[in-house]
Amino acid sequence: MKLFQKFLTLTISLVMAIPISFSVSAQDSTPTLGIEEIIVTARKKDESIQDVPMAVTAITEQLRESSVRRIEDIQAFAPNLFINRTPGIASGAAITIRGVASLESDKSYEPSIGVVMDGMFLGTSSGVLLDNFDIERIEVLRGPQGTLFGKNTTGGILNVIRTPVSLDEMGADLSLTVGDFGRQDVKAVVQLPIIEDTLGLKVFAASIQHDGHVYNTTLKTDVGGDDKLNYGFALLWEPNDNFSLKLHHEIMEDKSEQGVYVNRNVVGELACTITLIGFDPNNGCEKDATDGPDTVESDGSNFSDNEYESTIFTVNYDTENFLYTYIYSNRDMDEQNMQDFDGSAARLLRMNYFNDWEQTSHEFRVTSQFSEKFQFIAGIYDWEVDYVQNWDVYDLFYQLSRLGVGAWGAGDTLTGYGRDSYITGLPWESDLASNNGQTQKTESIAVFASIDWYLTDQLTLTAGFRWTEEEKDFLGGNAGVGYYPLRGEPRPPLYDPKPYQAKWDETTPKVGLRYQPNDDVMYYATYSEGFKSGGFFGRQANFNIDPSYEPEFVKNYEFGWKSTLMDGRMIFNGAIFRSEYDDKQESILIPVDLTNVATVVRNASSLEMDGIELELMYQVTEAWDLMVTYGYLKSEYANYFADLTGDGIITDNSNLVPRNTPENTFGITTSYTTQIGNGELKGRVSYRFRDEMESESQNRPEGSLDSIENVNATISYSVENYSITAWGRNLTDEREQRWSTIGGLTSRGWWNEPQTLGVTFKVSY
């Protein structure tokens, strides 16, 4: 803490000296270069990023680089941002901003980090790992964003903006990418003005193919590859200067393989035991495994068959005094994801998830335009979600029956699905599946407002609030029902379903001051609160264990600055913050009995986070630019009492370090452009350092990750409408393994991607 205080004092001193230290050099220099102004919609209106009194990073030009393949690749360009694939869920992302994470993909647990695409809140962690396709800009909003965005965004927002529809120019952007491990990406965006300056159509499509970088020695094939198809259209109608209507519709089909797991089973875990006693001729123990960063020996395939369909309808009506905006969105997700949880060649635990999710939202807001001294945004927001989730568990109960362990007791004849096998002592057959599931309906409504009151030419007061009411109706199946799906048996109904219902409401305020001593420097200070609703966690299978959890709350204190220096050639922005979480929601694994492990969510802790974020952009010369980011984060549980082991004993866990909270992150990106012949040669190198961190809730040694460095690079040559780019990802081939356990049953690990090289061809006309 003393080191942090010294660093904080030094940073504040340097920041307060900005207007003085650069004033002389600014007078003596001759304007020749300047960083292009970046317009963002972080406060739901168009503003220069240097005028926004909050910590926001806009990622624009970097998205044009071929080494940026998915949203996860943007973490090198923003401080205190960490993005990782959610294991086992196609297109699922575990996003962490300022140490606040969305690590749980289950539909019953809403993320703390929101992903918004063209005004549509995506609603769940699955399906948010968007490919870098038809994206104009990604805004990283750090800290609670509940006032304007709501929907449980206690940690921050990734605001994704698609490319606009052209009303006056016909054109097309086409690209082909080939690379290591069978990567083949084909992308196309076509602009078709139908009525000049009035009606335009954009059509887009992308095919993402990748064989996978891991070889399965049991199945004798490459695994972990991508298989995606993304297509749709956007229609824009502007009959006059005051009215616009935009319709966006897209479909993403994802049949990628997810969850390529290596064997981490130790002696004593069931996956290892069934091998040692001779039930399986293959290796189920880590000590006998041959797994490595690029090989696995799992005997089960990990596949997905998912479809995401989204519709966004946006209307703007502009009058002299007000701008009226209405946004309707609908997202329908149909998912099936098969995972081999044990990661070994032993057939122990496979789970097949079936999710049907539909969300609908309505937002109406008014933006004032009648005064330069007083401006406001106010609106209402309605959100509804219905989902059904089922999962089949394979192999586990078959192996237990061979051990003579019964899983269900008397009374199972009520189901009529042959569960009496445990009572009679007859073993289950190998194609048995145990089914469980739940349903939930969520209704949420909110009223929000934010004002800017320009007290003087230099001082602005910002104030806002959001009132939210949310109700959830949940029905969860208690224990599983055995059936044989491969024989054509229908999925059985939920066994002994348990209903739960709750309603919460909360008002979260925000207040801040912005001080601008001159056109080039701005300071701000804000206080904001965030609210994340409670709920009922659905992935625990045994609902005799209370699935409910209560809301969490956050208070955020922040001081920041925005500075444009050296006649526009340099931007130096930063923020110093402290976040205090009460009733922090944490997901933990607890064993229930020999055959059942429950993942539960508990309000177990208070959490304090202190941090610093620094961002520098420098146009060194006309040809050379530089971007540097640094994030410092100190996080600790102030009060964390919970049963983390399932022994019924609540312990003090305040010594634990939150997951995905490295103390230091650092990124530097530089590019250089030169003319060669009739074309332009451009090279870009991106470096990112991440400190050591914990990836597992109990901080067991297996989940501790060392610091890691990553380098991506591109070099491209373009002539007129054509370009060719050679790119490399993870050029230093840094590897690390994450780890997770399902207490007593199995443990598994998974590795990051190795070095990959490729080439991209583009044509634009």
List key phrases describing it:
single chain, 765 residues, mainly beta, Maltoporin, Chain A, 22-stranded antiparallel barrel, 5-stranded mixed beta sheet, 6 helices, globular
Overview of the molecule:
The protein has one domain (2-36, 174-395, 430-764): TonB-dependent receptor, beta-barrel domain (Maltoporin, Chain A, Beta Barrel), CATH 2.40.170. The chain has six helices and 44 strands. It is globular, with a radius of gyration of 27 Å. The model is unreliable at 20-31 and 407-425 (pLDDT under 50). The chain has 765 residues and is mostly beta strands. The strands form eight sheets. It has a 22-stranded antiparallel beta barrel. A five-stranded mixed sheet has the order 3-9-10-7-8, with no helix packed on it.
